[in-house]
Amino acid sequence: xxxxxxxxxxxxxxxxxxxxxxxxxxxxxxxxxxxxxxxxxxxxxxxxxxxxxxxxxxxxxxxxxxxxxxxxxxxxxxxxxxxxxxxxxxxxxxxxxxxxxxxxxxxxxxxxxxxxxxxxxxxxxxxxxxxxxxxxxxxxxxxxxxxxxxxxxxxxxxxxxxxxxxxxxxxxxxxxxxxxxxxxxxxxxxxxxxxxxxxxxxxxxxxxxxxxxxxxxxxxxxxxxxxxxxxxxxxxxxxxxxxxxxxxxxxxxxxxxxxxxxxxxxxxxxxxxxxxxxxxxxxxxxxxxxxxxxxxxxxxxxxxxxxxxxxxxxxxxxxxxxxxx
Length: 325
Known about the structure:
Layout: H1 3-8, H2 12-25, H3 31-42, H4 48-60, H5 65-88, E1 93-94, E2 97-98, H6 100-103, H7 106-125, H8 130-154, H9 161-169, H10 172-186, H11 191-215, H12 229-232, H13 238-247, H14 250-261, H15 266-278, H16 281-303, H17 307-322
Antiparallel strand pairs: 1-2
Helix pairs in contact: 2-5, 4-5, 4-10, 4-17, 5-7, 5-8, 5-10, 8-9, 8-10, 10-11, 11-16, 13-15, 13-16, 14-15, 16-17
């Protein structure tokens, strides 16, 4: 099934308008900045977050100018966070393409990220909606807090699902939650509906991150990162956390602590990846996604009255779980 076509179907025209506005936001006349922004524009993804904003606005009313500027603002904030994350992680590529810091250098990447953040603030100010401005500002704070929490967690010897979920709720889940809240807000949804939409978005975001984490246990050129890359960066994700706590294997725990200490070898990472697969870590993570999917479907069934929007959001949920990269 072509999930993306299904997902976009109710908002094709609105998405075209978004793409035009977003492209203008990534345009500049200065030489190096123009080149860097063009580099970012060429590697933009499937617009899953803006699509979610537009769908939520349609679900509760109409896509307005405020919706579009909020969507551009959020996507720019997200893009800026990725540019800065690549500097923090010393990453040479993003989704199989060279990162900004690899193409230029860290100084340029940080400044380009700052430019994107300022442009995000400009667009969100054009919504003339103080609550949306506050949501986006709080999202920026939450994303930075989540990144710092993830960095501090590397030195934390506690290997628990609770810590894992704390991190992703302040990163990927926060983004999806904000998309749903801002989309609903922009079309005038009441507070009760906005809260329900936020919960739906958080569940989507957690599923999205779990699926991303599963990719790291398998080789794929499309994903743009090798097997075990998260572990090489000192990160332990849900599959390995479950396998470790279920088996209570002292040798594997020792390797996991070496992951956190940053002195693990590639051979040890390979051992831990295989241990995770054999220990049911992947199946456990997939089961957790199924549980979250059930909650998402419950929300859609109870809160979406238009067939096209209902089908689109159902397709969105399926895509998050079924995607290959």
